[in-house]
# Entry
Amino acid sequence: MYRRPMGRRRGGLVGTMARTAVVAGTATAVAGGVNRRQQARQDAHMQEAAADDAAFQSQEQIAQMQAQMAAMQAQQAQAAMAAAAPAAGGGTDMMAQLQQLTQMKEMGALTEAEFQAAKARLLGM
# Structure
């Protein structure tokens, strides 16, 4: 009778199929893990990109608001100057300046020609 030497047995067709199934299952599990990691990285990258876009849009909105504020302040300054211009052109301020000119002329600080020139400038003639 012939005996096989003791040692490593090959296991036949069923053993080969079992080994193949184990290798295939391991490969599937590893591939699934790699795919999950790649998907997680891609998701994190997409979230980061979305956050960057939101920050950029916020900065644009802030810049637009600052430009609007500057325009509103310029309009308010123009309105204030327009409101102050008629008051400076007439009223008690002009009268006070005319009285000062008259007093300076009476004290001798201004000549008649200087007085008339200053009065014309004041009255806008």
User: Anything to note?
Assistant: Residues 90-125 form one domain. DSSP finds three helices and no strands in the chain.
